[in-house]
Amino acid sequence: MSILAKRLTKSHIWRRIGIERIAEPIHLNFASALVAAFGSFRARVAFDLVVRQHLAFGLLKAADWARECGISRICAIELGVANGAGLVNMCQIAAKVTQVTGVAFDIVGFDSGMGMPEPRDFRDHPEFYGTGDFPMQDREFLLRRLPKNATIEFGDVSETVGPFLTRCSTIGFISVDLDYYHSTMAALKLLDGDPDKYLPWVAMYFDDVEYDRHNRYCGELAAIVDFNAAHSVRKIAKFNFLRQQRVFQRATWIKHMYIAHVFDHAYRATRPRQMAVLDNPFG
User: What domains are defined for the chain?
Assistant: First the structure.
């Protein structure tokens, strides 16, 4: 059974389809069917026809940015692997993005392998998440499924991020699914490296920000706020005007997308460019 077929057996997927697709204009859904049958990979990403749309969008956007910067290989990271479905899917999508853009990927997952640690205080949302949640049930099976360009850093993220930064390729995309405030704060040290460790803009997805009881004082949202307060030249901001740029604007993944802006990156200060001149239609 394909990944798409498996996902269509889940009731929450059908609820999402009802909200995100059926409520959209009929001509867009008709066009979507044509794209599904005949469209290119870029078109299928644009019409949200790739499983885990946020990964498809984020990886393709990161690769396009890398090409703009003259970078041919980038690193895509998943923080919180659990049983690995998302990481395997990331590898599959990245391979297709490489075919389209020519940009190669190193895929890296971070996970303790033992489920979530004990929550420390209210900022970890202990009412929603707890010790041992989302364990990796078959480590060896998952490792066998990964391609050669994919690895998993096992251990406490507060201990694994630092050594990883010394040897990684240029970071272009980060998916954060750690639930806890403290785990997310430790993981965001990934953004504390030298500026040439990153693209000038790092596409980011934060999984645990959409529930009505999530808030800026707990969990991943609080980690974003505190990261920004502690950094002057690295800031995490919402992906600007993304919803207005999408074909299907009701898609829930859109509000999960952010960009880490690396303001001290050399590209943002010294990029050679021609003078911009506007045409005058009355001249």
Answer: 52-267 (3.40.50.150)
